[in-house]
């Protein structure tokens, strides 16, 4: 059964909600979404403001496709989401008319772009701000902001300039990545959400565009690889077909897809099409933490996550068999106890091939761990593999240092490092948990 059901769009005003989530592509990176009783517009460019701005220049920004709907004709909109401030995502030709036609609608934008959003037509009293790692309840849909690199991870004192949004509600999880290229840690941030449908840009990037101030995005191949890495069930590629200097030819894209063997169900966005994703029932997220000996780092993470995520399956294991059956290192137990985390009941074990089917996430601590975990992973294993340290700082595959054989202050530093990473991972798992149980048993399966 297809993850994404498609049917012709009869009329934008007759856009049906149904169960789960229903989407319509608005061109470029724009989508109209019905999810958990809300109508959400994201990154809508429904004007010719860029053509007016760049008329007579090398890149005149003339539309290759017509505006699918006038912004004032979109009604009953609850939220307008903008991932960043580039005009084709935060459009001064779209925002005032859309908000005027929907007086109860609010706008969600990156905290770092508050001034730009107000300048583009969002009244301050209708503005909600967010930064990477934060979650907000839109009223039935939980939105969590993820960092994006377009083409770099740029931030101010207020936060990241480029974001993506995870939308969890109605038994469905969507991820609109915003404009981004691959960067370390991006996949790990998405893994806990168990994304049903990823909305990813596929127009790519090159030196010519970069030299002329046109930052790039994922290529189609990179987007497919990312969707597979995070364990998404389906992907829709977008951000093409609008400007001839910054697009992907759909026919060329179809030929490229024919040469790939993705696990994810992949489609390229088309106009006048309704996309529907049915709700699912999922068990709570399960996580296995892995280090070399399972007496220092991984039991620390095990204990911290168990305390933060009651009701989730949390465990830890070793790459090597040196300490099987032993308790954690005495200094590890002492440092954790001083921070209110009990580790005395944990016993070291070695990672097993069955773990790759029994857990959703398997997270290592350093390069050696990751190399060993990947070597052990059976073909087609269920678990997503990543680095625990990636949850600490976006863009850095932070190594969790091994304190074995060092003084107590090294164990304390490791506990602090692990706590920061586990706090964010637990936050994501809790945000995703809000979406569990909203689907029907008919569509339920373990993912």
TrEMBL record:
Q: What is its EC number?
A: 3.1.3.48
Identification of the protein by name: protein-tyrosine-phosphatase
Domain named Phosphotyrosine protein phosphatase I is located at: 285-428
Uppermost EC category: hydrolase
Domain named Metallo-beta-lactamase is located at 27-238
Entries under CDD domains matching the protein: LMWPTP
**Keyword vocabulary terms for this entry:** Hydrolase, Protein phosphatase
Similarity comment text for this entry: Belongs to the low molecular weight phosphotyrosine protein phosphatase family.
Active site, UniProt feature: 291 (nucleophile), 297, 402 (proton donor)
Q: Molecular function terms in GO for this entry?
A: protein tyrosine phosphatase activity
InterPro entries membership: LMW_PTPase, Metallo-B-lactamas, Ptyr_pPase, Ptyr_pPase_sf, RibonucZ/Hydroxyglut_hydro, Tyr_phospatase_low_mol_wt
Q: What is the lineage of its organism?
A: Bacteria, Pseudomonadati, Pseudomonadota, Alphaproteobacteria, Hyphomicrobiales
């Amino acid at each position: 059964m297809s993850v994404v059901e498609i049917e012709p769009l009869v009329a934008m005003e007759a856009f049906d909600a149904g169960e789960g989530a229903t989407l319509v592509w608005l061109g470029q990176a724009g989508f109209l979404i019905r999810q958990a009783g809300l109508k959400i517009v994201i990154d809508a460019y429904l004007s010719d403001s860029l053509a007016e701005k760049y008329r007579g220049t090398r890149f005149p920004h003339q539309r290759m496709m017509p505006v699918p709907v006038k912004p004032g004709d979109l009604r009953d909109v609850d939220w307008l989401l903008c991932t960043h401030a580039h005009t084709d995502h935060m459009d001064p030709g779209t925002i005032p008319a859309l908000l005027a036609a929907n007086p109860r609608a609010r706008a969600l934008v990156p905290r770092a772009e508050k001034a730009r959003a107000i300048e583009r037509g969002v009244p301050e009293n209708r503005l909600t701000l967010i930064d990477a790692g934060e979650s907000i309840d839109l009223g039935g849909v939980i939105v969590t902001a993820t960092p994006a690199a377009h083409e770099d991870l740029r931030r101010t004192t207020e936060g990241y300039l480029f974001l993506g949004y995870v939308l969890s509600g109605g038994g469905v999880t969507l991820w609109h990545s915003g404009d981004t290229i691959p960067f370390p840690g991006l996949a790990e941030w998405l893994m806990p959400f168990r994304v049903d449908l990823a909305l990813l840009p596929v127009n790519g990037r090159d030196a010519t565009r970069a030299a002329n101030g046109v930052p790039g995005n994922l290529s189609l191949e990179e987007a497919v690889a990312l969707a597979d890495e995070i364990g998404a069930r389906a992907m829709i590629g977008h951000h093409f077909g609008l400007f001839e200097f910054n697009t992907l030819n759909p026919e060329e894209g179809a030929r490229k897809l024919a040469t790939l063997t993705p696990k994810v169900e992949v489609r390229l966005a088309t106009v006048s099409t309704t996309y529907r994703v049915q709700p699912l029932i999922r068990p709570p997220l399960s996580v296995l933490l892995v280090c070399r000996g399972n007496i220092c780092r991984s039991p620390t993470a095990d204990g911290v996550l168990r305390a933060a995520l009651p009701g989730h399956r949390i465990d830890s294991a070793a790459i090597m068999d040196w300490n099987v059956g032993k308790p954690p290192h005495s200094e590890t137990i002492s440092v954790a106890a001083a921070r209110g985390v009990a580790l005395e009941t944990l016993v070291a074990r070695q990672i097993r091939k069955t773990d790759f089917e029994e857990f959703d996430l398997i997270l290592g601590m350093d390069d050696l761990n990751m190399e060993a975990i990947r070597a052990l992973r059976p073909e087609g294993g269920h678990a997503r593999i990543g680095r625990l340290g990636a949850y600490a700082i976006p863009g850095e595959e932070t190594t969790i240092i091994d304190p074995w054989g060092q003084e107590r202050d090294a164990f304390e530093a490791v506990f602090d490092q692990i706590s920061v990473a586990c706090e964010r991972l637990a936050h994501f798992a809790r945000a995703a948990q809000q979406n569990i149980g909203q689907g029907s048993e008919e569509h339920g399966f373990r993912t």
